[in-house]
Amino acid sequence: MSAPTTERTRSGATGRGEPILSVRGLQKHFPIKGGGLIKRTVGAVQAVDGIDLDLYPGEVLGLVGESGCGKSTTGRAILNLQPATGGSVVFQGREIVGLNRKQMRPLRRDIQLVFQDPYASLNPRLPVFDIVAEPLVIHGLTKSNDELRSRVRGLVETVGLNPEHTNRYPAEFSGGQRQRIGIARALALQPKVLVLDEPVSALDVSIQAGVINLLEDLKNSLGLSYLFIAHDLSVVRHISDRVAVMYLGRIIEIADRDELFDRPAHPYTQALLSAIPLPDPRRERARQRIIISGDVPSPANPPSGCRFRTRCQKFANVLDDGRREKCRTDDPALADRGTGHLNACHFAEVQSVL
Amino acid sequence: MSTPGTTGATAVSSTGTISRGRTQSLPGFDAAAPLLQVTDLNVRFPTDDGLVHAVRGVDYTLRSGEVLGIVGESGSGKSVTSLAVMGLLPGSARVTGSVRYRGQELLGQSDRSMSRIRGKGVSMIFQDPMTSLDPVYKVGAQIEETLRTHDSSLSSKAAEARAVELLELVGIPNAGDRVHSYPHEFSGGMRQRVVIAIAMANQPEVIIADEPTTALDVTVQAQILEVLQTALQETGAAMVMITHDLGVVAGIADRVLVMYAGRPVEVGSVEDIYYEPRMPYTLGLLGSLPRLDAPTRERLTPILGAPPSLVNMPPGCPFAPRCPLHIDECDAAEPPLFQVGAGHEAACIRTEQVERAHGHAAEVFSGTATDAVLAGDALPADLALGEGAGDTTAGDTPPPDQTEPAADVPDTGSVISTHRGTKDGDRA
Asked: Strand, coil or helix: what is A192?
């Protein structure tokens, strides 16, 4: 909660007051059970392994990484949908980790989740009205049916759908419209924080753009804060104020948006940015691409020292043996190493790759 | 018995690697005929709701050695087109038109005679590497099967040696050992490498890649795109690259075909399409993309509404309900592809208005940047399209700003012609 001011400055969040959501050392390990009659825990998938994040009021914090890096698990652990195995999540001064369902309920009004797949996250047997009304009913926030109807109507209009269509079922809507329904449901309780887990990944670009614009407008008009989880860095650059990059359960770099995209310092961030094809033939063909080898290692058995070293182009091609030994044995902490923002590489160096 | 291919044995790939065997035309095919010519391809699927006209008149010619990118959103018919070319559609599909490979008609051929062409003449890379390999066979066996199908004289030892060589070529470490592994022992990226190895095993002249990197993470996608470039250099094959990712196409394609509602709506060189699009849909797609390289945060300009249902399509331009340049004439008849420049065609009667935007979507789509939503307007439900619900912006055609065009846009000397361009110019 009481993060030193200096640290906050370096992670790029200056002058934003107290964080509305503060995550410290968040850990989510999934036990691996052995075979045989008696299931003993023989190891752990370290899906999230010690994460610090601050979300400030009115801010969009992008959380990016490749599949399996733990970004979705982070979102769920923050919401206590999957209880964290360690660390702390403080929302407006209240510790969330360890609360049971009942204790969580009042907090759910303030912090809501929008899911990735609009085809799976809406109950196909409920008309849209019931889907959007459900949170209001559960929390008993409306006194009469008329009030409920007008609230739902307002919510559906806010997300750009025709309120006359609320008697229809999710199957009658396109992907973009369903995602808008999911957003309307999340907004029903007037939350302060939305955790958006890949909210536009399942949508076509022309539809995706509309949902992104909607999210921007909602943030500005309702004063929301977003934790925006996505793998598409173009979308993240567009919508975020600050960006955190995850790799194998850890945050490896975090900075203000332009700082991160223009002056990335961690070799993984650099590789990730350079791997994204630009929709501009001349620039795309003139680019020098950093191609990292191999795939993400198993989070059940992460490499010693720096978790990225097995794929790191710097480790493989640039460093001498003495420095490599440091990567092998010494787990780099998230710190400012003279690059102006926090990163977790012993040999961080700013390199522009776009 | 085999005739030298058009690319010739003397062709040296730019990397200077030894050409182990460049593409060769299959015996019995006319090596002088266009490599792959698709003419008026139509695919209809009978459903309970009526005939779904998934592909509605696709024409393209693939030249030797070129990469043709086919882009479009889901449901635009880009994958069905390529499955029709390969003869892989289910029996219920009604396919009409013509697909000629080296002059020979592929449509209507028996599965048996198609098998002679698949893999050797035209091969395919599928989207999902998790399902396109057989889980019960070792990857080596699956590559060897492809090799021996087309060359029964190949000994199993030689086939395995070639399989190892192919796995090395696509960047699989310890290929000699991994050839004995099962698909589940590989990661997604590695499996896609195996699929590419199978696709290039017989030096096909055409490789059709259907969203080959969509299921992969970006760092792995970058690896696979590099492997694909290697495969093209090694075999000299031409490629049809089907994708929804405009970034991937920008990097790899020579020409681009944009599909919408089962039809090509714009065809041109990659530079034409990205810098001087003439079809509002293409422009809208580009304006919808958040840019990684954008110095400032510009408002996105989405395309309102949703693609039309392909059952009982109304007359007129299928994009009209979503188009900010829509006028009454758009609803009269579906526009054919008009020639708008050298090798550049667009299916729109208002290409001159689009031209003024010079690729800046905001000039045409400015009305969509404010989400219709917060203004109190409703987005059309896609099923309500037929009821004219998509008219929220259609009525007010914003006159595109006629300010000076951006200076960095080159003059492509485009000629607006109202006549349909002859397709002969597309010949290799």
From this structure: coil
10-residue mean pLDDT profile of chain A (354 residues): values are: 42 67 95 79 90 95 92 93 94 92 91 89 94 93 92 92 91 90 94 94 88 92 94 94 96 95 95 93 90 86 93 92 94 91 94 88
Cβ of B379 under 8 Å from any chain A Cβ? yes
Around B92, how many Cα atoms within 13 Å sit in the side-chain half-sphere? 8
Give me the residue spans of the domains in chain B: 36-253, 302-426
Q: What angle do CA A234, A237, A240 make, to 5 degrees?
A: 135
Contact criterion met (CB < 8 Å) for A281 and B271: yes
Q: Which of A66, A162, A311 sits opposite B378 (nearest CB)?
A: A162
Instruction: Determine the Cα–Cα distance for residues B220 and A106; give it in Å rounded to an integer.
Output: 42
A208–B250 C-beta distance less than 8 A: no
Contact at 8 Å (CB) between A324 and A303?
Answer: no
Summarize the confidence of residues B374-382 as an average pLDDT: 35
**What integer is the mean pLDDT of B319-339?**
93
Partner residue facing A234 (CB), from B225, B292, B373: B292
CB-CB contact of B122 with B206 (8 Å): yes
User: Which strand ranges, in their side-by-side order, compose the sheet holding B94-101?
Assistant: B50-62, B36-47, B94-101, B104-105
Provide, as residue numbers in chain B, all residues whose Cβ is less than 8 Å from the Cβ of A235. Answer: 290
Output the six-digit token pair for A59.
């801010």
pLDDT digits (tens, 9 = 90+) for A258-311: 999 999 999 999 999 999 999 999 999 998 888 888 888 888 899 999 999 999
Q: What is the pLDDT of residue B130?
A: 81
- Residue A257 is predicted with a pLDDT of 93
pLDDT at A7: 45
* CB within 8 Å: B371 and A172: no
Per residue, the 3-state secondary structure of A322-337, as one string, reads HHHHHHHHCCCCCEEC
In terms of DSSP H, where are the helices of B16-87?
A: 78-86
Give the pair of three-digit tokens for residue B348: 């729109």
Q: What is the DSSP letter of A165?
A: G
For chain B, state the CA radius of gyration: 23
CATH number of A5-32+43-110+191-343: 3.40.50.300
Domain boundaries, chain A: 5-32+43-110+191-343
Please give the CATH topology (third level) of the domain spanning B36-253: Rossmann fold (3.40.50)
